[in-house]
Amino acid sequence: MKKIVLPLVTLCFVLSSFTLKTEKETILYTKSSLENGKKLFASKTCSACHQEKVKVVGPSLKDIAAKYKAKKASIVLFLQGKAKPIVETESGQTAIMQASLSITKPMKAEDLKDISEYIMSIK
Q1: What was the pLDDT predicted at 105?
Q2: Is 49 inside any structural domain?
Q3: pLDDT score at 12
Q4: Any binding-site annotation on 50?
């Protein structure tokens, strides 16, 4: 019995040391993903229509984040074209955004998640 218990305890300890992240590592990852999200947001020309706190052509990121938080909806699914928009806009704005989805649909899910995290960080 001792021959089985000791290796199992050792294995659990070793595996847990690989899977646990410190708070500092988590914060660094979040900061990195926010920076990547902000960079992608700008490079994909999203900022031509959406500003952080001011409505330009489309709604502000602050308004978008508030709606998605309130409804617990996924920006990633919307950017993949798998969910309908939940932020109320004029039909012309919706048409522009639908055309812009051709930019976001082929993007990697990880990059879309970073963009989503950036948008959701705006208060």
Answers
A1: 96
A2: yes
A3: 45
A4: yes
Residue in this structure with the two tokens 């992608």, named with its chain if needed: 40
Q: What is the pLDDT of residue 3?
A: 61
Residue 58 lies in a domain: yes
β-bridge partners, 50: 55
Q: Give me the domain span that covers residue 66.
A: 24-121
pLDDT < 70 stretches in the chain: 1-30
49 is in an annotated binding site: no
Query: Does 45 map to a domain?
Result: yes
Tell me, what's the pLDDT at 94? 81
CATH of the domain at 112: 1.10.760.10
Q: Which phi and psi (to 5°) does residue 12 adopt?
A: -60, -45
Q: What is the 3-state secondary structure (H, E, C) of the chain?
A: CHHHHHHHHHHHHHHHHHHCCCHHHHHHHHHHHHHHHHHHHHHCCHHHCECCCCECCCCCHHHHHHHHHHHCCCHHHHHCCCCCCCCCCCHHHHHHHHHHHHHHCCCCHHHHHHHHHHHHHCC
Residue 97 domain-assigned?
A: yes
> What pLDDT is attached to residue 31?
76
